[in-house]
Amino acid sequence: MSRSSSTYHHGDLRAACLRAARELLEEDGSAGLSLRAVARRAGVSATAPYRHYADREALVSAVAAEGYRELATHLTQAHPAPSTPDELAAVAVAYVRFALEHPALFRAMFAEPCDPTSEERVAATAAISEYVRTIVAATFPDVDADALSTTVWALVHGLAFLHLDGKLDSSTPEIVAAQVTSAVHALFNAAPAMSGTAAGAQRGV
Amino acid sequence: MSRSSSTYHHGDLRAACLRAARELLEEDGSAGLSLRAVARRAGVSATAPYRHYADREALVSAVAAEGYRELATHLTQAHPAPSTPDELAAVAVAYVRFALEHPALFRAMFAEPCDPTSEERVAATAAISEYVRTIVAATFPDVDADALSTTVWALVHGLAFLHLDGKLDSSTPEIVAAQVTSAVHALFNAAPAMSGTAAGAQRGV
DNA sequence: CCTAAGATGTATACATCGTTCACATCAGGG
DNA sequence: CCCTGATGTGAACGATGTATACATCTTAGG
């Protein structure tokens, strides 16, 4: 891997494509993420990316998987190991904030049915799902963790999308945080009643 | 509008395009919805649709608006005027069922930031939003209707997306219904506590 | 050290797509 | 009756995803 004089070989085209795709997504939205644009930005011919990604969807899946991982670290940064309703609410706020800070990425992560052939992608989403379940179980040990974590995730996920679609007031981060906190706490008020409900319908991913 | 012998003029291309677009969406997903395919299916030249829709996005917006209206009637069919938590839960189940029965349409409705230039589209979404607010207010008269309706909508919307993404068990309608019902009731258990909360952060659309 | 094979990038080509523009055809009101 | 506006046609342009054949580099094994 010596950085030889030749510019024929890129060095790490795979990573360069991922970065370029990510940038294009944030700059021009999903429509701007074309394989050719990625190749141009990486300074490479139009077909070069095919050596590293089977097709456009594979690249998008890779970007989405990266997004999941970033979301996970973003959440743990909000609080490493939440164990109280307030700490859990802080994580929820971080989730919605991530969506608002990376709207195109967040949409790419959920725009299409998760391609099951991208094991990188399913692994990343499973990690998120498991993480949510774990911290909910830590906060409400006496409750059906599967049921509550699904409900919490759905609530927060729905809030994120409604904010993205402009259905709610997202003018300042404080307003968003207050809104998410209030909604999540409303659910938590009912959480103790959820122990052993008939909500066995949920299933972890 | 006499059905003259000539086939030159279609008669109602606008509606035909809408129908063709809708069919293509359900058959081949969002990727299959191309203007040219719509024109082909309507039996018309590739550029004819431009007489009725400014561009592809305008057509998609029209399809989305139709989807909102169908969703609204689907909800009212579940229950015309819900006023108890159980009736409200039935409407929630109908919401998620609609998403699962028309996945591509549902995604088209929420895939992109709602184009504010399509007044048909914003009107249709505002109608849904208002409807949710109204039935929540009818069921919980003593509660901050804006706050609770936003929270309920977010929960149900999130459940719909998690089901669409295969994150939850959607194997049978009964399982889905049980899951949605349980989640919604959990929230309702806390609803009485929401009167006059600090959740003035919400705003109707 | 040399060489052959695999990995990586290039060039070319094709079908499709969105969109524009000039033109053809039809319908209805002066 | 014909002229004007609405509607549909056709050819054309640039961009895109992708397949194929070819070029170049890296590196493992003799």
TrEMBL record, chains A, B:
Keywords per UniProt: DNA-binding, Transcription, Transcription regulation
Alphabetized SUPFAM superfamilies for the sequence: Homeodomain-like (SSF46689), Tetracyclin repressor-like, C-terminal domain (SSF48498)
UniProt-listed PANTHER family: HTH-TYPE TRANSCRIPTIONAL REGULATOR RUTR (PTHR30055), TETR-FAMILY REGULATORY PROTEIN (PTHR30055:SF220)
Keyword Phosphoprotein: no
Pfam families: TetR_C_33, TetR_N
Originating organism: Streptomyces rubiginosohelvolus
Residue ranges of coiled coil: none
UniProt key word Chloroplast: no
PROSITE patterns: HTH_TETR_2
HTH tetR-type domain residues: 11-71
InterPro entries: Homeodomain-like_sf, HTH-type_TetR-like_transc_reg, HTH_TetR, MT1864/Rv1816-like_C, Tet_transcr_reg_TetR-rel_C_sf
Entry protein name: TetR family transcriptional regulator
DNA-binding region positions on the chain: 34-53
